[in-house]
## 1
Amino acid sequence: MAQRSSYHSRVPKSHSTYGFITIGVTPCHKSTMTTLNHPADENITNGLKIISYGVNSKGEYELTPDDVWQPVNVVNAQAWQEIEKNITASKDKIADGRASCLHYYMTANQMDTGLLAQYTGQPRWRVCLHLMPFFFHRLPADTLKKYAELFKIFPDDLTQGRLRPPLYLHQ
Amino acid sequence: MPDFPHTQSAHCESGVAANLLTHQGIPISEAMAFGMGGGLFFGYLPFIRINGLPLVTYRAAAGHILRQIGAISGVQMVEKRFRNQDAAMAELDQALAVGIPVGLQTGVFWLPYFPRALRFHFNAHNLVVYGKEGDEYLISDPVFPQPVRCPANDLARARFASGALAPKGKMYYLTQTPARLEYKPLIVKGIQSVCKMMLTVPFPLIGVKGIRFLANRLVRWPQRLGQERADLHLGHVVRMQEEIGTGGGGFRFMYAAFLQESAEVMQAPLLHDCAASLTTAGDTWREFAAIAARVCKGRAHPDDSYPAMAACINRCAALEEKVFTELRQWARQHP
């Protein structure tokens, strides 16, 4: 590594770059971030400062509020891209009639059949059946209510097949 | 409004431990709580899957630090788990009514005040509830700069999150603490337990051996999994290492801060040297993370490759082996 400056360089707030990744707090924060193409915002914490451990010029550790280290934004964005890809695939499946809208709510809320079964207190095989439109259309009201409560939507949304945003996007 | 000494920290569990002890009149830093609790670790456990990706952990199992703190002589910690959600919330309200700040284990996905990008199904997030106003709880969440608020039913959900590491409504609070802590034996004990986990456990997936195991596996990911899955695996390792709650460098910087603080307490210059070496190890982890981020982003430099990253990880293993061997020898001389 030509610029092996990863940590120590952060204390005097530098503009040194680690390849394409800008390290440290740069005033030109926004412009450097355009290259990172994060889906939501430039910083995964929405601008919230987190504490990080840094070595000062005397070699002593000190705690400083700081932005998230840039590579973290990159790998976090990667994880969300994967989730979004799954959501798109799920929507396609529903549009083709190969899955019920429960499949979308499960995927969008980052769950799988096992987790959804645990949250709704049913066996997993039953959840698997509910993902198929045939069984889903025949669900009793109380089961629909269980799902609706979990995802904070109305049972109507499920029966009408409305795809509302996942929980973490609720206001 | 009830008063609680909220201090922002890098890691939730050590932060909660430090804040609770500070509230009881024992001012202690987060790094010290992390070190005394033996929080550092490494484990690569591919048979446990998180969203289909192998578990990599740089810290001790969730709850380990708090257990160690609770086991200090003179400290009494009450820990409860519940089956019933209403009973759990009633018990919390009762404790708050008599002015006891209560630590909770929660699922991050259900906490509305968390930044959107961090809301994954991670169920071992610790926080302290120190009051209630109307239908809202006042929360000292150690990774946030200021205390936050959370509606009661969201908190109830977070306490009863399902999945891996399900909290089952776990709550804990300190009922008794000694007038002052005897730091020296606790530091030695904390260091000993970490050295044991890092060096001597006869299991190839944890400690320094685990780091080398990860390096060996990582080289073969592109062939075994294809480029796309390999990059996902890589991103996952970096997230576990660097994402919020680690203090950076897979907790290595935090542990180095603990060693530095301990060097002053113990009057042991050797710990200063170990702290410096561990900082180098943390920097090397970060070097790996930076390469990995470039690879994940598809902007790899000509010399960024999986073998180069494996070499980086192997260097971390060598550095950490040296540090912890020295620490183990030092701890033997200070029983």
## 2
Amino acid sequence: MSFKTKFGVAAALALSVSATAVCAEEMKIAFIDPLSGPFASTGSNGLHQFEFAADKLVNEKGGILGGTTFKVDGFDNKASPQESLIQLQVAIDQGYKVIVQGNSSGVAHALTDAIEKHNKRNPDSRVLFLNYAAVDPALTNDDCNFWHFRFDANADIKMDVLTDVIKDNQDIKKVYIIGQDYSFGKAVSAAANSMLKEKRPDIEVVGDELHPIGKVKDFTPYARKIVSSGADAVITGNWGADMLGLGKALVANGFSGPVYTYYAAGSGITAAFGEAGKGVIRLVAEGQLNPPPNDQVVEYYKAYKAKYPDGNIDQPRIYNTIGFLSAAIEKAGTADDVVSIGKAMEGMEWDSIFGTKLMMRAEDHQVIQNMHVLVHTNEGVTFDYDNSGFGTVTESTIDMAGMDSPTTCKMDRP
Amino acid sequence: MDLVVINLIDGLVTGLLLFLLSSGLTLIFSMMGVLNFAHASFYMLGAYFAYQISLYVGFWPGLIIAPVLVGVLGALVERYGLRRVHQYGHVPELIFTFGLALLIEEIVQFFWGKNIVPFEEPAALQFALFNIGGNAVPAYKVFMIFVAIAIFLGLLYVLTKTRVGMIIQAALSYPKTVEALGHNVPLIFMGVFGVGTALAGVAGVIAGPVLGTFPGMAFLLGSIVFVTIVIGGLGSLFGALVASLLIGWLTTFAATYNFEFASILTAFGMERPEDLSESYLRDLWVLTLPQIGPILPYLLMVLILVVRPYGLFGKRDA
């Protein structure tokens, strides 16, 4: 009898302990991106921004749902899809609920595929995939699934914004398109070709090519080719060392027209461009820094600089990802059930401090937000990148870009 | 035509840069019989040292100081690392240099971070020296050419015309005899290793501002340097020069001309199928020369190994 009572008390105690443990638990987020190799800088800066956003938005406010905190851990995928799948398995085995990844759509394809299969086979350990930068349109079209959410505008939306700007620039008669040889580079090229044809049929595409990703040592020959083609503007989706190499070679070899890019800022790239890239390099991006849209941005940026004096907030979408996720968890009322969190995110609207509203389109899980075309300069820069005095200043804004862009996504919901 | 001339110049720059790296590597190999996997890491160290020095005293002192520092570091690595490992044979030596390459990359990331550092050309050389058909040739590139050629001539002179060079050459072939004649062969080895790595350092200093100074720079160039010395013939300085220039021009021209492989297929009388996804040759139909440019040196290496296993100017089997 007494034994039974004791057992009952112990069981009750254990239950109550585990109940409090549930309340004050941790939401573990696995960051799977390159932390070594040629793209290490892009990856490690992203990780810092994730950790900082998690601390500022969730942990320092005492967590969400009465004490759930966010913990972001880096998993080095060496920019390889195979390695990413290994790291994904490790993360799932260690109880991570959310996977974030952004660098390389090739990796994103591998992950979204693996996560869909895993979630189907293992309903007990399902994970969400928050993609903060892999912009191949296919991820929210033919290859979409319920578990994948994209917080960056996809390549088509970005190209839509860029071509809107190019459309109004009558000086541009010839355009050269160059990109890295993989799914994203091909998507950029396809979008640029079709949209230019539609918006400015008089523009001639004088070159359209792909180069091996992360393998080109010297971009001089490419720059030569572009200059001698007589192009007035260049469009490229290059990132990391490939972006820097291409941009520097273009400027050094006498190209002076606008270079429209997706990822030519931060991670040392802005500092390395310096004076040479002034007024030449333009990028399409979300989130406005210069001029700062409000005081919250100023405060957030200064706090980040205090923690990482050598870092930049070059990806406001990382802030958005963490903010949106925490809002969705609050809305769903659970940090355990990723299906409810996923459903809460569908169609949800959330206001970012970076001067835009975010709307997660339910039919394809593509976020819709204000997009900007920024110019690399040192004039009117409140927050520079890489402590270089140079930064990106907003030139034009498209509100809720790609709001009614079509999608071919047909997803099965759990 | 303009483009051909400009490509010859660009290819020359790439080739000479590669030569600065491969000359040191091939000298070290012919002397010690060990492939130094960390050679490109010394190139990276050169760039980072020069960047750090340029923050205080500008680019020019860095051009001298950084390679000297790298050379001293290389000599120390030989004296206190490689020489101890040497007695256990070649495999431990290979593993040692391999580990050293990884270590140097981590150290560089530790001190300078993973970002690209803003290492710039000196202001005095930031202008276009001349134009060929709208293509600017930066003064800095011409400067690179002169530095590389000066070093090649200097090296050639030392190796063939001086007493030191004679002893080095003798130590290459008959180390035991040279030692018996009273020369300090281990010291010569250390010197050659130091000079070899210093040359890599020079390459790093002058390439850093153009190709970007970041922790992945050694990895990008590492494998191509080995290809160069295999093509040129292991241990041959002249071979290293020829192979470097060959690879420089090969990659430059391949990247510039959008030659489509589809035109070969049509020349064979084949027709481009409407639906490429069904075709067995779909990759060939859409392939262009710039896409395969970076693998051409490796292709050349395989060909050379098949036809002349000891390389273009090598004297013994690789």
